[in-house]
Amino acid sequence: MQATIKQLQAFVAIATSGSFVEAAEWLHLSQPALSIAIRKLEDGLGGELFSRSSRRVQLTPEGRGFLPIAQRLLRDWHEAMDDLDGLFSKKRGKVTLAALPTMAAGFLPPILAKFRADYPNISINVHDVLGSQVDELVREGRADIGFSVCPPDTSAFHFEPIVDDRFVAVCPLGHPLLCSETVKWEALLDYPVIAISHLSSTRQAIERVMATLDKEMDILCEVSQIATAARLVAAGLGVSVLPSLSFNQVSSEGLGHRLLIEPDVPRTLGIITSTRTALSVAAQAMLKMARDFAQGDTERTSTSRKIAEMIEWAPPVASPGDRGKPGPGQ
């Protein structure tokens, strides 16, 4: 037997008030409708819950035993409805994101700040991981939204491009490559390179460029963290190739950087969602905010200009013999 919420409410109201008349007023029901609800409940349970007399209504022993159960069921129902209302109204909930470290540091902060201000009771969890891990987290439902390069297997994902990042040559201050406003990829071949792990999407993109040039870099060492690569470069151990957005992750002290050209290799970054799993209301709000932010950036300025402003391009560093002379772009 399945009791309805209306029947449980009728039973508890009558048991509490001891009167069909008062219970009908509380519930804004007619007395016949209230009587029908109780009769159906009793028929379903197989016995009477109330003993009725001309003066009063009393609970039967079975009714007294059922009362705390009915009250608990109603409390659970109301709590469930409150929880569901909180989720739909974005008063509570959780959003989990997976992002490349470059996007976690270079794209997400203003979005997360606004989301937190608009929805202070929704918790946010961010995994800053490799591109393959972003795909895995979204595919397995452990992340609602991913921010990364386009997944190799697009059958399980929807990918929305939002920004084109650029690769830059990163050098210690005073390095010869900093004397030009841009650097050709082949120029890197003359210097030892501090490389990012071959598991990263950054390294894989760099390897594809080298393959098109039919060249190989002189890799001095390989590291996992962009910040580590930057500090080794600043110490004078070599040069490196990093995404321009990554400069939100590292200290630029002791470093210079120049846009890599010939070829010019934009790296398209975007939003990844699963084609198989629906997003929660909270995750939908996060997705809309990310889209709006990306669209606002596009309208205000070109992507390349925006990136250049974010990483504050340093002027070319002159050699000791050229001190005092105007450098390119000055």
Largest sheet: 5 strands, mixed
Low-confidence stretches: 298-330
Strand content bin? 15-25%
How many β strands by DSSP?
A: 13
Domain module tally? 3
Helix content: 40-55%
Shape: rod-shaped
Compressed to H and E, one letter per element, the order equals HHHEEHEHHEHEEEEEHEHEEEHH
Q: Kindly report the name of the CATH homologous superfamily of the largest domain.
A: Periplasmic binding protein-like II
What quaternary form is this?
single chain
Termini separation (Å)?
A: 85 Å
Task: Tell me the structural class.
Answer: alpha/beta
In CATH's first tier, which class of the largest domain applies? Alpha Beta
**Mean pLDDT across residues:** 84
Radius of gyration: 32 Å
Give the neighbour order of strands across the main sheet: 4-3-5-13-6
DSSP summary: helix tally = 11
